[in-house]
Amino acid sequence: MPKFLRPLFWIAVSLLGALALATIALHRGEQINALWLVVAAVSTYAVGYRFYSSFISAKVLALDPLRATPAERLDNGRDFVPTNKWVVFGHHFAAIAGPGPLVGPVLAAQFGYLPGTLWIIAGAVLGGCVQDFVILLFSVRRDGKSLTEMAKSEIGPVGGVVAYLAVLSIIVILLGATALIVVNALKSSPWGTFTIAMTMPIAVLMGVYLRRIRPGKVLETSILGFGLVLAAIFAGQWVSESPSWAAIFTLTAPTLAILIILYGFAASSLPVWLLLAPRDYLSTFVKLGTISLLAAGIVALRPSLHMPPLTRFADGTGPVFAGTIFPFAFITIACGAVSGFHSLISSGTTPKLIRHEPETRMVGYGGMMAESMVAIMAMIAASVLQPGVYFAINSPAGIVGQAPAAAATISSWGFQVTAAQMATLAHAVGEQTLFNRTGGAPAFAVGMAQIFSNTLGGQAVMALWYHFAIMFEALFILTILDAGTRVGRFMLQDALGHIWKPLGRTSWYPSILFTSAIIVAAWGNFLWQGIKDPLGGINSLWPLFGICNQLLATVALCVATTIIVKMGRVRYVLVTLIPLCGLVAVTFTASWHKILNPNPRIGFLAHARQLAAAGANPRLIFNDRLDAAVTAVLVGMVAMILIESSRECMRVISGSNFAATKEAPFVITRLATKEQS
Amino acid sequence: MSPIIACSADTPVREKPEARTNQASARAISAAIIHSFRVLAAALREIFDESAYQRFLDRSQMQSSPNAYKTFQQENEQAKSRRPRCC
C-alpha cells in the first residue's frame, strides 16, 4: 500500500471499529446482525495490534532482532528448535484454545451480549494479549524458563511457591469444573454418551495404528480417527432410537461422574502413546476444524442476535449464576479476555520455538487475539438463541423448577418460552429434554447447530450438528482431564520428592498411582460437589475457576511488572500495571463476594448457613465451607505475591536495590545473516 | 521492451502491457497461495508432531519404523505429559 494511504487506511479501520462498537452498544429494542460484533472485534484487534503492540515492542520491551533466541542458541532438534513464525503461531494457538473461551461467554450471555462482548474485546487488547506477549518475551530472554521459575528468580522464593500453588489449584478446579460441563451435557443423553464413549476405543485404535502400522503419520491417523468419530455420531442416532441400546447409554449425573472419575484415574496412568497422545491429536484436529467452520458459518449466515444487549439480570439475580456484572462477568469470561493459564503456555513450549525475538509480538499478542475471536464466536452462538430458550437450557432446576414449570417461570421474566417449543427443539436435536442443561456446552451446541444447519444441510441435520458440537466440546475436555491429571501428578511428585525421594520418581508405579489418586480425588471432589449442588454446580464452580484463572493472571502480570521495573522502564510500567490493577480489583472483589456476601446464591458461607438452618446434608455444608477456604487461601497467597512484588519494585525505584534482571547473556544472532545469504 | 509472442505461425503480435501485468499478478497470487498452503501444512506437521518425528529421525539417523517411532515416543513422553492443555 502506498505510504500516503496508510494513515487513511488506519483512520478508516478505526472509524469502522468505532461505528461497530457504537452500534452494538447503543442499539436498543431491535435485533442487530452478528457481523457487527465481528467487525467491532476485528477492527479493534487490528488497531490494537498495529499500534499498541508495536508501541510495547519498541518502547517497553525493546525487541532486538539481533539477539539470538534460545531456540537458536540451544537448538537440540528436540525442545529448542528455531521455527517459522506462522508455524509457532499455529502451535501456540492450538495450545491455548480450549473450552474456556467457548463456555465463559455462553454463561455470561445471561447479562445480554453487550457486557461480555465489550470485556472480551477490551480485556484482550489491553490485558490478555499484553500478558501473553510480555511473558513470552521474558521467557525467551530467560532460556524458556517457566512462570514459576521466573516468579522465583525475579520476585523471590514467596513468588515461586505462590505461583506453584496457584497453578496446582487452578488445574484441580479447572478439571472439576470442566468435568461437570461434560456430565451436564451427557446426562440422559444416550446419543451423546455413546459418541463420547466411542472416542476412547477410537483413540486406542489410532494409537496402535500410529505405532504399529503407519509410524509417525499423525495427520493421516487423525483424519482416519475423525472419520470414525463421524461414523460414531451417525451410529449414536441409531443407538438413541433403539430402546434396548438407549437404556444402556442413558446415564444419570452421579453415574457419569463416577465413570469420569474412574476414567481420569485410569487414563492418566496408561502409557501416553496409547490414549492421551492420539486423542490429543484427534481433539486438536477437530478443534481447529470446527473453529474454522464456525467462523465460516457466522460469516456466511450473518445471523441476527435475539438476545438483548442488556438483560434484567445485570442486577445480579441471574438464574445461570448469581452476581452483578462487576465483578462476575469479568471472572466468568477469563479465557477469551485475560487468562492466567496462557502464561503457562507462553512460558512453556512456545518460547523454545521462537526464531527471532520480534516474532514474539505476532505469536504472543496475535495468538491471544485469535483466541479472543473464538470467544466472540461463542457469544454469537449463545446470542442467536431466543432468550427464553437460552434461559431454559442454562437455568438449574433449583432456580426455575423443571419442565413445564420452568417455562412459566422464564416467561414471567419477559423471555417467552413454552414447554412445547422446548420439546420441539429437543426433538430436533435428538435429545429427550433441553431444560436445565446447565454448564454452557448444550446451549453452545444448540446455537452452533442452528448456525451450521442453516448453512449446511438444513433443519433435517440439526441433530447431527448438535451432537457433533457436543462431541467437539466433550472430546477436548476429556483430553484436558487426562493431561491435566498428569501435569498435576508431575507437579505433586516434584514437590513430594523433596520429602521422600522415591515419591519424586516419575516412573515408579506406586508413586504414579498414589499421586494420580490424590489429584483425581481433588478434582473428583469438586465434580461430585457440582452434581450434588442444589444450585446446579456451575453457579459455584465456574466463578471459583474464573477467580483462580484470573489470580494466576495477576501473578503473571506481577512478574511482568517487576521485570519491566528492573529493566529500567518504569515510565512504561502502566502497560502491565493497569491490567494488573484491573484484575486485582476484579478477583479480590469477586472473592469477597463469593466468601462473605449475605446472599446464599452468591456467598459460600451464607449458603452454608442456609443449608445448616434447613438441616441439609452435612456434606453439602462442608462443600461450601471448603470453597470459601480455597478462595480465601488463594487470595491470601496472591496478596503475598503482590506485596513481595511491590516491595521489590519500590526497592529498585528508590535505588536501595540494584536492578538486576536474570536475563540470559546477549548473543548476536546468526540466523538473520544465514537467511539473507 | 515487450516480448514477442506468436499467436500463429505468420502473425506475430506484441503482447499488451496489461496482459503482462495481469500474468505477473496471477503468478504472484498463485505463489502467495502456494506459500500459504506450505506454511499451513508446516504448521499442521508441527502441531501434530510429524516434524518433531522427522527431526528425531534425522538426529538419530534412523529410518522410519515401528521401533523408531516407539523410541521417539518414549523420548517425548515426559515432555508431552508435562505440557498443560489450556482451558
Description of the molecule:
The complex is a heterodimer of chains A (677) and B (87). With 677 residues, chain A is mainly α. Chain A has a single domain (5-188, 251-654), classed as Amino acid/polyamine transporter I. Chain A is 72% helix and 1% strand. Chain A has 28 helices and two strands. A two-stranded antiparallel sheet of chain A has the order 1-2. In chain A, helix 10 (218-241) crosses helix 13 (276-301) and helix 10 (218-241) packs across helix 22 (462-496). The mean pLDDT of chain A is 92. With 87 residues, chain B is mainly alpha-helical. Chain B folds into two domains: 16-47; 49-82, no CATH class. Helices cover 68% and strands 7% of the residues of chain B. Chain B is built from three helices and two strands. Chain B has helices spanning 17-47, 50-60, 66-82; strands at 4-6, 12-14. A two-stranded antiparallel ribbon of chain B has the order 1-2. Residues 1-9 of chain B have low confidence and may be disordered. At the A-B interface, helix 4, helix 8, helix 9, helix 10 and helix 13 of A face helix 1, helix 2 and helix 3 of B.
Question: How are the SSEs placed, and which strands pair?
Answer:
The complex is a heterodimer of chains A (677) and B (87).
Chain A: H1 5-26, E1 32-33, H2 35-60, H3 70-73, H4 85-96, H5 100-108, H6 113-140, H7 147-154, H8 157-186, H9 190-213, H10 218-241, H11 243-249, H12 253-269, H13 276-301, E2 304-305, H14 325-332, H15 341-346, H16 359-383, H17 387-394, H18 397-400, H19 405-412, H20 419-428, H21 441-455, H22 462-496, H23 509-532, H24 538-566, H25 574-596, H26 604-613, H27 618-654, H28 671-676
Helix pairs in contact in A: 1-2, 2-6, 2-16, 4-16, 5-16, 6-16, 6-24, 6-25, 7-8, 7-24, 8-12, 8-22, 8-23, 8-24, 8-27, 9-10, 9-11, 9-13, 9-22, 10-13, 10-22, 12-22, 12-23, 13-21, 13-22, 14-24, 14-25, 16-21, 21-22, 22-23, 24-25, 24-27, 25-27, 26-27
Chain B: E1 4-6, E2 12-14, H1 17-47, H2 50-60, H3 66-82
Antiparallel strand pairs in B: 1-2
